[in-house]
C-alpha cells in the first residue's frame, strides 16, 4: 500500500471554499467529469452537521503501464474507460470544517484509491463566520484575514495478481497451457511477482494523483474566482460552458435535447431552453 499526503491553502473564506467544493464540476480542469448526482443528503439532528453522498461519473484512460497487465478487451481502445466515484462529505458549520472521502467503485481489484480531505477555517471565530454567512449583502468569498486550509491524504492499494490471473499467465509461459498471447508477453508476465506488479500499479497511481491534485486546486480556484466575481449565477454559467466544451456540440445529450425541442414546438422549446441554462 502507498500513501500520499499534501497540504494547501485557499485565500478564500471557508463558506466560499465549501460552496465551491460542491460546485466544482465541471470546470476547465475537470472536463472529464461527465455527471454528478446527489444520492443522499441530510442534517444530523444531534450534531447539526450536513452529510452528503454524491456519485460522479468520470471519463478516464488507463495508463499504459497498467494496461499491459490487463486482459485484452477489459478496457476500451487505447485504455479509454468510464468509472464511478462515490464521494461522502460532512460539514460542521459552527466549527468551520469539512471532511470528504472519495473512492473508486470500479477497477478496485486493480487499484483501490481512497482520497480523504480536511478543509478548515483559519483565523476567524465561529460567531464571526456565522454572522458573515447570515449577511446576504456581503460577498461570502471576501472574508478579511480569513483563509481555508486543506489537508489531503490519498491511499493506494492494489490486489492485482492475487486472483490467479498472473499465475495462469506464468503457467502459459512455461508451456503447461496452450499460449494465447505472444512469447514476449508471456515471458514478461512470468518474470513478475504479484507483489512487484502491485507496487508498480500503486506507484503509477501516486504519480497520477500528484498531477490530478494540482489540477484539482486550479479548478477550485477557477470556481472561487467565478463565485467572487459574479456569485452563484456566474458559477452555473461557467459550468454550462465547461460541460458543453467537454462533451462537444455533437454530444449525445445535446442531440437528444434538440430532438425533444423540435418535437415539442417553438413555444415549449423556448421554455425548456430557459430551464437548461
Largest sheet: 7 strands, antiparallel
Question: What's the multimeric state?
Answer: single chain
Radius of gyration: 23 Å
Uncertain segments of ≥5 residues (pLDDT<50)? 181-187, 269-277
Mean pLDDT: 78
Fraction of residues in β-strands: 25-35%
Number of strands: 7
- How far apart lie the N and C ends? 44 Å
Shape: globular
Order of strands, main sheet, comes to 1-7-6-5-4-3-2
List the helices and strands in order: EHEEHEEEHEHHHHH
Q: From the helix content, strand content and strand pairing, which structural class follows?
A: alpha+beta
How many helical elements?
Answer: 8
Describe, in plain words, how this protein is organized in 3D.
- The protein is an alpha+beta fold and 277 residues long.
- 42% of the residues lie in helices and 27% in strands.
- It has a 7-stranded antiparallel beta sheet with strand order 1-7-6-5-4-3-2.
- A hairpin with a 7-residue loop joins β5 (97-104) and β6 (112-122).
- The longest helix has 54 residues, at 194-247.
- The relative contact order is 0.17.
Describe the protein's topology.
Layout: E1 2-10, H1 14-22, E2 33-43, E3 50-61, H2 64-67, E4 80-92, E5 97-104, E6 112-122, H3 126-134, E7 147-157, H4 165-173, H5 183-190, H6 194-247, H7 252-264, H8 266-276
Antiparallel strand pairs: 1-7, 2-3, 3-4, 4-5, 5-6, 6-7
Helix pairs in contact: 1-6, 4-5, 7-8
Please summarize what this structure is.
This protein has 277 residues and is of the alpha+beta class. The protein is built from eight helices and seven strands, in the order E-H-E-E-H-E-E-E-H-E-H-H-H-H-H.
Amino acid at each position: 500500500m502507498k500513501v500520499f499526503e499534501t497540504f494547501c491553502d485557499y485565500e478564500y473564506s471557508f463558506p466560499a471554499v465549501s460552496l465551491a467544493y460542491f460546485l466544482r464540476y465541471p470546470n476547465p480542469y475537470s472536463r472529464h467529469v461527465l455527471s454528478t448526482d446527489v444520492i443522499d443528503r441530510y442534517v444530523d439532528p444531534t450534531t447539526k452537521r450536513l452529510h452528503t453522498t454524491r456519485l460522479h461519473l468520470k471519463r478516464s484512460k488507463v495508463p499504459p503501464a497498467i494496461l499491459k497487465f490487463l486482459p485484452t478487451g477489459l478496457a476500451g481502445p487505447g485504455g479509454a474507460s468510464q468509472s464511478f466515484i462515490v464521494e461522502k462529505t460532512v460539514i460542521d458549520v459552527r466549527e468551520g470544517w469539512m471532511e470528504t472521502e472519495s473512492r473508486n467503485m470500479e477497477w478496485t481489484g486493480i487499484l483501490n484509491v481512497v482520497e480523504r480531505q480536511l478543509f478548515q477555517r483559519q483565523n476567524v471565530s465561529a460567531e464571526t463566520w456565522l454572522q458573515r454567512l447570515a449577511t446576504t449583502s456581503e460577498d461570502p468569498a471576501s472574508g478579511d484575514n480569513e483563509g481555508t486550509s486543506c489537508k489531503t491524504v490519498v491511499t493506494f492499494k492494489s490486489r492485482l495478481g492475487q486472483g490467479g490471473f498472473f499465475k495462469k499467465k506464468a503457467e502459459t509461459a512455461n508451456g503447461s497451457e496452450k499460449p494465447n498471447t505472444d512469447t514476449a508477453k508471456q515471458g514478461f508476465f512470468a518474470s513478475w511477482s504479484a507483489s512487484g506488479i502491485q507496487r508498480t500499479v500503486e506507484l503509477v497511481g501516486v504519480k497520477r494523483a500528484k498531477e490530478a491534485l494540482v489540477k484539482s486546486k486550479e479548478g477550485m480556484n477557477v470556481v472561487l474566482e467565478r463565485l467572487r466575481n459574479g456569485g452563484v449565477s456566474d458559477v452555473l454559467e461557467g459550468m454550462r460552458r465547461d460541460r458543453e466544451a467537454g462533451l462537444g456540440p455533437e454530444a449525445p445529450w445535446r442531440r437528444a435535447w434538440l430532438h425533444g425541442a423540435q418535437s415539442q414546438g417553438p413555444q415549449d422549446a423556448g421554455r425548456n431552453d430557459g430551464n437548461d441554462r
